[in-house]
Amino acid sequence: MQKLTNKEEEIMHILWKLDKAFVKDVLAEIETDKPHYNTLSTIIRNLEEKGYVSYNAYGKTHQYYPIVSKEDYKKRFMNTAIENYFNSSYKNVVSFFAKEEKISVEELKEIIEIIEKKK
Asked: Do 26 and 75 fall into the same domain?
């Protein structure tokens, strides 16, 4: 699975949300920094080349849909981030968020409960 650019990732989030969409549907979902229609079409074709989306053809127009699930992408993205930035240590991930005050004690207790329930 190839890495996505920020814009490609933004478009994938829209496609995951819509499930199936024409370029004009995706364009309508973009709230800020709307690209030109042709630029967006190129981005979506790049996603197709990278193996993230496919399409159904209706004459000259295409309806695109994701072929990589959001869950699969999230797993790969998280695993890569944890490997690259936290030395493959989930403890380092949690410690980072605790130090940055992005996770509360209550949330940590909930995480521990989840882990204990799986045992």
From this structure: no
